[in-house]
Amino acid sequence: MKKYRLELSIGLIFALLLVALLWGNLAAIAPALPMGLLAACVVALISVIAPFPERDAEGKVVESSGERYAPKEFSKAVVWSIVGIAIIVGLTTLLNRERFTKTIDLSERKVNSLSDETVKVLNGLETEVRVFCVPAQDPRERYCDENMHLRTLYAETSPKFAHTTLNLMDKVALAQVQPSGYSRLVLLTESGGRNELIGTVTESKLTNEILKITKTKRRVYFLTGSGEHSTSMEGTRNYAMVAEVLRNRAYEVVPLKLTDELPEDAQILVAGPAKASYSLIAENMFRRLLARGGRVILVLNPHRESGMPNLFNDLGIKLDSNLLISNVESELGGRLAQVDPMRPPLAVGEFSRQSPITSSFDVNVIGLADGARPLVFEAPAGQVGDASAMTVKGTVLLNALYGAPVTLTEEQRNRLPLEGDLRVTPNEGFDRNKTYPVGLSIEIENPEKLAEGVPSATLASNDLKTSLDVGSQSKDSSVASNEAAKEDKAAKEKLTAELVVFGFDTVAYERVLPTTANLIPLAVAHLYKDKDLISIPHKDFAPRKFKLERNPQSFVMLFAFLLPILTAISGFYIYARRRSA
Predict the structure, then answer these.
(1) Can you give the pLDDT of all 581 residues of the chain as single tens digits?
(2) Looking at residue 141, which CATH number applies to its domain?
(3) Structural domain count, the chain
(4) Which domain holds residue 421?
């Protein structure tokens, strides 16, 4: 039997490999079975390859001509066994790489590993971060599959990072995660923190979102002092439900009095609808916040003059003098008049697909408004050739449908009742099919100029921690400082701000049809864009893995079971042929 050590050793080595690969399946049959088979194979292998001489019945050593070749034959067995094991293990690893937690990145630009900054952030996590990937509305886009590899790298780096793909059919999971739309990552923490990463997922974006949700506090300020809605259950109309939605999404809702100083951490301010025209104090507050890169959500009261004509003029916003009411003679207007005959609601819809604020609404969905004021955007003329000049871009968010315009003077508008019976007569001969824009998103580049001349101790220059000398200086030093400021400013990244304006009360009919009540939470989610806390160079994770098909685990049986069996059968066939020869 010793002369066949080569074949037996190869067969025993592959038997050991089979036991190792099928360990879990064998343990399911009997917990001690894989360990017993492993021990039996090891003992058998030692007995075959051990250089013990053969002895006769009297104990004398029996010389064998084939014995001198045993070391050579066994070395062949080891070499070919190692080659076979390497091939099988390599193929098995390649096709089942998701089961392994350690990888070696051999790519030139390290696209299959995380940067040192991300690893440092993940290792420093003190609370668990759970990430839910919300699939695209069209399953063919495979949104979650595209960022699966990146999320897996994060999970392999830190045990406090967990991720999964959200099942849109699971109502319990949907209620827990509460995504605001499709194609996004929802990040949740144990302490109630919540954030969303919308669109394409990169390492820089995901790491910054983790930093924001674990290291920063997101506050949304609501202006008070001019008759705005309360964030508590006060009055017939309030922002209580809006505030509850924001708190559920890990925002802190903070009232801000008109007479208070603008907080340094203020990034988003919700104002309106006011029962009185906004004064110069409010306008200066809006200007200072926008000038330092903040965001303002302004809800106009269509039954009162808004004030702040200079601010609107600087931003290219034109307020129509008309009040839009429902055209009760239209089919839709007639049905809506049954909701409130004394104050028929106005239909709003045609939500823009170009803005993240309104892109989540279906095409045919409508909302209700208690009257509206049309808004028109006309880009103000900028300074040609001046890189520091303020530039403004406007986007229409939604329109009023089947509205009837009523031309009013400022005095007539301010005398309209805010509740109850509203009796006004539409203009004669108005276009019954015309739509009117009642929501705008204004993006502002270089908004610092909005605060020029604002009499406040917290000018935008101070908020931005830059130096602006407004004292009396000589003409030469003033020119020199202005030139230096321009050069320094040109070297920096352009500052941006955004103003979202709605020409109607978004919560007037939230108990009847809460469509428009979602506008403020959606606007907050879009506008709350912190600057990246760290900068990570972009990596292309597109060539994520090698796959022969959708589910590579179907090859496990081939390479972990069938191939070793075929190899063993081939070995025994060769053994039989050699023996017969």
Answers:
(1) 455 666 677 777 778 777 877 777 788 888 888 899 888 888 887 777 666 666 666 767 666 554 444 555 556 666 776 777 777 677 666 655 555 555 566 555 565 678 888 888 899 888 899 999 999 988 888 899 989 989 988 998 999 999 999 998 998 999 889 888 899 999 999 888 888 898 889 888 898 888 888 876 689 999 999 999 999 998 889 999 999 888 877 788 999 999 998 898 899 999 989 999 999 999 999 999 999 999 999 999 999 999 999 999 999 999 999 999 999 999 988 999 998 899 999 999 999 988 989 988 888 899 999 999 999 999 887 655 566 788 999 999 999 999 999 999 999 999 999 988 998 999 999 999 899 999 999 999 999 989 887 765 444 444 443 332 323 333 344 444 444 444 454 444 678 999 999 999 999 999 898 899 999 999 998 887 645 555 566 655 544 444 444 455 556 666 666 777 777 787 777 777 777 65
(2) 3.40.30.10
(3) 3
(4) 223-466+481-527
HEC secondary structure over 40-80: HHHHHHHHHHCCCCCECCCCCECCCCCHHHHHHHHHHHHHH
Residue 7 lies in a domain: yes
The letter for the amino acid at 172 is V
AA letter at 519: L
In a domain, 472, yes or no: no
| One domain for residues 176 and 325 | no
Bridge partners of 61, per DSSP, are 55
Please give the DSSP secondary-structure letter assigned to residue 353. Answer: S
- The answer as to whether 326 is a domain residue is yes
Kindly state whether residues 412 and 505 are assigned to the same domain: yes
Other C-beta atoms within 10 Å of 214: how many? 19
Same domain for 90 and 168 = no
Q: Which residue is it, tokens 């009760």?
A: 328
* Same-domain check for residues 44 and 145: no
Domain annotation covers residue 313 = yes
Q: Are residues 462 and 336 in the same domain?
A: yes
**Residue 195: both structure tokens together:** 């954030």
- The encoded tokens of residue 388 equal 């520091």
Shared domain check, 130 and 65 = no
